Amino acid sequence: MKNLEELDRLRENLRQAMKIREQAPEVSVRVSMGTCGIAAGAREIVMSLLEELKEQGLDGVALTQTSCAGLCHYEPLLEVIKGSEKTTYVNIDRDKAREIVRRHLIKGEIVKEWVTPDR
Amino acid sequence: MEMYRSHVLVCAGTGCISSDCKSVRAALQDNVDRLGLGKEVKIVETGCMGPCDLGPVAMVFPDGVFYRSLKPGDAAEIASQHLLKGKVVYRLLHRPAGSSEQSTGFEGLDFFSRQTRIALRNTGLINPESVEEYIARDGYRALGRVLSQMTSQQVLGAIKESGLRGRGGAGFPTGVKWELTARAQGYPKYVVCNADEGDPGAFMDRSILEGDPHTVLEAMAICGHAIGSSKGYIYVRAEYPLAVERLETAINKAREYGILGENIFGTGFNFDIEIRVGAGAFVCGEETALLASIQGARGEPRPRPPFPAQEGLRGKPTVINNVETWACIPPIILNGPRWFAAIGTEKSKGTKVFALAGKINNTGLVEIPMGMSLREIIFEIGGGIPGGKKFKAVQTGGPSGGCIPEEHLDTPVDYESLAGLGTIMGSGGMIVVDQDTCMVDLAKYFLEFVQEESCGKCSPCRIGTKRMLEILERITTGGGGAGDIEKLEELSRGIKNSALCGLGQTAPNPVISTLRYFRDEYEAHIRDKKCPAGSCRALLTYCIDVRSCQGCGLCVRACQAGAVTGRKKKPHLIDFEKCVKCGTCKDRCKFNAIITI
Predict the structure, then answer these.
(1) B186-225 burial string, b = 16+ CB within 10 Å, else e?
(2) Are B299 and B512 in contact (CB under 8 A)?
(3) Best of A18, A26, A30, A46 to disrupt the B interface by mutation (most B CBs within 10 Å)?
(4) pLDDT of residue B106 exceeding 90
(5) How far apart are CA B79 and CA B89, in angstroms?
(6) At residue B21, does pLDDT exceed 70?
(7) Mind telling me how many Å the CA of B354 is from chain A's nearest CA?
(8) What mean pLDDT do residues B253-258 have?
(9) How far is A72 from chain B (nearest CA, A)?
(10) 8 Å CB contact between B211 and B130
(11) CB atoms within 10 A of CB B587
(12) B124 to chain A: nearest residue by CA?
């Protein structure tokens, strides 16, 4: 380590991976992980979300799972929670998951065509 | 560092290692791998999280779920339910004593939420063997800032303004100590970390070294810049092998990164640290004895002045601070001295780590702002006394401190208030005793400790504590006589005024303070030959409660002295003449029929 700037750069790189241990994430993404969800491919969704978060350098996003939402035919299903606002996306696939990260989490626009029909 | 969606932190402090956290961690890793979660979930070993009696413990992030008393067999369920499906395993959550609700998150537990963690900010939250995790949490940023943006004078000013006082016992202002050393004539100057934690029941220094070793290295280097020193020593006891190992790893990693060594951060500042392993003598925690031991001499104290700030290691100006004091330095630099000074009381700034031990529900390590009342620490964070027993006293400051009875429980914890009660802050040991503890016996325990650990250099400590111990032995075994209390008081005064070092001068404190608050217990032992707490066996009479005795004969067979007799299914009898008061019959009896009076 030659100077303070190098330390700062290193810390910025490391921070993304460690942010998870700070409480109260700003945003959380919850993937429905019941048996139905797993059967419909929810685990792949989690992996692609994780990869996209990594690539986009996003921290402060908690990627968690929840149980069956009772909407088994809409699986894979995920929820984006920002403060009190909750958006449910249905029939997600890997590409849609990545796009949700880019559009909803980064640009802040809800991808209307994939949300629950009654919204 | 790879990014994962979940981190499972498994406590690997010495407490949890002794309850086999290593197997739990291995089982978790196996199950995570088996379910193909290896790229999503990271299992991390950390330092001590604090609630040692609940070990092995683990925390799952980002949810902040806290699991306790884990066994390797629990790993499969945690992995398949929680880590895969997001379902918390409720049976493994902690339910505090007296509470009907389980809390999923650690933040919902008083034990965690009432704490303010500065010295322990990383302990239990990072992998102590990873310098990267330390750096990610602002590690070495304070050192970088000090070297590139602050003059020595500014650093000294900041530490002074923060109001930080030594956490090892005496509470000397840290900034003043640094400034005296900076001003002292002599070269080279040295920076020393006192990690010779010897008080029975105190283990905060060990936990910081095991859980966050880099913070000590960083703070010592900051001090090096402030006083103009390029060499540091950490004196750590050999009984802390894990701390030594993690310190070695940390020093090597820091050297690899160029954070220790020559031309640090390209500023031309050189600083390196060596470990000195002590052989575990209590007296080596005394600074002059410690310095002698580093030099390879016998660990014996010498009179002060000259203080180490003038003539320390090898006769050169030396700053010597305790581990917890060092751990407060980087946050003070980063957040500013005013931030630190805003925490705590007027004369005692910041936080203090306490090791809760003895008759208390939550034994373990807690860090609280100065000024919190003893009642809050013991009953709210510590969870009170187990088994519905009554609180009797709390011993602070280990063998150099004293006890505090119930009527003073609302005293705020700071250096001055504790001194006013006849005890000291010390290194932060807090041993809680309940109604079953005899205060004379407690004083005897601590005196036995100092007596054994006395280095023998000065006679007040070597001979005086021996005489005091003999008197206490006599009192607790029924041989006490008139004048014993006065003799104890006279010896205490003499030793206090004439012993060479701090340890000797404070050795009579447990006796002085138990005499101050529990004189009646001493008198009962001497005059009535009774132990009010029912703890000194020699003063008890064992007898059988005929209403409860079922005549099962267990005690008859158990008694080696042949003192218990009786026919089957008829109440038994103890022959007082033959009884040697070993207590075996009482331990064996299933009907609580053996009572002591």
Answers:
(1) eeebbbbbbbbbbbebbbbbbbbbbbbbbbbbbbbbbbbb
(2) no
(3) A18
(4) no
(5) 10
(6) yes
(7) 24
(8) 96
(9) 15
(10) no
(11) 10
(12) A21
> Can you give B447-496 as a three-state secondary structure string?
HHHHHHHCCCCCHHHHHHHHHHHHHHHHHHCCCCCCCHHHHHHHHHHHHH
- B1 vs A: CB within 8 A: yes
- Using a CB-CB distance cutoff of 8 angstroms, which residues of chain A are in contact with residue B4? 17, 20, 50
**Contact call for residues B446 and B378 (beta carbons, < 8 A):** no
On whether the pTM is more than 0.90, the answer is yes
Which residues 6+ apart lie within 8 Å of B528 measured at CB?
none
Residue B284 carries which DSSP code? G
Partner A contacted by B268 (CB < 8 A) = no
pLDDT of residue B415: 94
Residue B483 burial class via C-beta count within 10 angstroms: exposed 0-12, middle 13-18, buried 19 and up: exposed
Angle at B237 between CA B232 and CA B239, to 5 degrees: 150
Q: Which amino acid is at B357?
A: A
Residue of chain A whose Cα is closest to the Cα of B144: A4
- CA quadruple B50, B51, B57, B58: dihedral sign: negative
**Up-side HSE of residue B375: CA atoms within 13 Å toward CB?**
6
DSSP state of B193: E
Which residues on chain B are in Cβ contact (under 8 Å) with A12?
none
- B549 token code pair: 């005795």
Q: How many CB pairs under 8 A join A and B?
A: 96
B5: which chain A residues are within 8 Å (Cβ-Cβ)? 20, 46, 49-50, 63-64
**In Å, what is the CA distance from A113 to each residue of A74, A78, A87, A98, A109?**
14, 14, 12, 15, 12
Q: What is the DSSP letter of B389?
A: P
Cα–Cα distance measured from residue A113 to residue B319, given in angstroms and rounded to the nearest whole number:
67
Q: Is B583 on the interface with A (CB under 8 A)?
A: no
Share the mean pLDDT of chain A. Answer: 88
Distance CA(B57)–CA(B248), nearest Å, equals: 26
B563-573 core/surface letters (b: 16 or more CB in 10 A; e: else) = bbebeeeeebe
Identify the H or E element spanning A78: strand A78-82
The average pLDDT across B69-88 equals 95
Distance CA B67, CA B104 (A): 8
Residue B165: C-alpha distances to residues B162, B174, B199, B427 (Å): 9, 5, 19, 12
